[in-house]
Amino acid sequence: MPINLLSVSGITFGEDKNYILKDIHFSQNQFQKIVIAGETGSGKSTLLKIIAGFEQPSSGQVTFENKKIKGPADQLVPGHPQIVYLSQQFELPKFLRVEQVLEYVNQLKSTPEEKIFSVCRINHLLKRKTDQLSGGEKQRIAIARLLIQRPKLLLLDEPFSNLDRIMKGILKEVIDDIGKKLKITCMLVSHDPEDTLPWADEILVLKSGKIIQRGSPHQIYLHPISPYVAGLFGKYATLSQSWMKKFGVKSSAQNMIVRPENFQVVSKGPKTVSGKIDKVHFFGSHLLLEVLSKGQRFHVASHNASLVNQEQVNLKIVIARH
Question: Which residues are CB-neighbours of 322 under 8 A, at least 6 positions away?
Fold first, then answer.
């Protein structure tokens, strides 16, 4: 049976109409992987800071293992001993060797270092000075420094931003192993669906300080409640009732959001719509076509490498029912 680790109840931050967060409710079970998504300014980072105990909510409370997390107004030193938070603007001490940075933290906590170093892929970096590290290497050192404190919950704010594909891949492996090998629960903020959809157990979507949708990656991607949510997780087309009728799709909704994977390029026939390819984007594993039909633009995923710009094609919609 899942063990409840964290509960966020009625959290509001700000006053009257100038709020950053408003009436936030959710819970996180032990080892459950949660992603917080939303546009810039939607309140994601503020929410993480409140959970970590670094910001004081205007109302509501956060409990960790059934005990209230105190904010900076409630205690002299802000933070919670079993929750660690890595911000986007983290810094490491300059001109020290990595092993010195980590030894200083380990004086305060008795933790087997070797496993943490291995999980964070930093064994080969211990003798280097911090000013000789790449951005991705510094980030893994910063995470290791937090893990030495033996937390139960790790909060990561946009951990993949400004990393190249190789460093991002390494960090994804690190975050996976933090949960699997170190048994630490993780929550992260990220704006890139490639980083969040494969990893998350649950996604919370924030807009203007409110949770507007929550669910599994599958639910959020295939059944977004609005164009705003759809746009956070990839390309889409919005079909009106008239377009649904042309494609032979029956729905009581006024509009339908359709992902590129739901379109197929087919021979002309019933329930198909003709159009012209306006742009072709090559992604290696597939093409992403932009097809224009009577002023409507459709994003279409295709594995047919022979399709070219300005070619006339016929589209069919295949909607999987889940």
Answer: 218, 222, 223
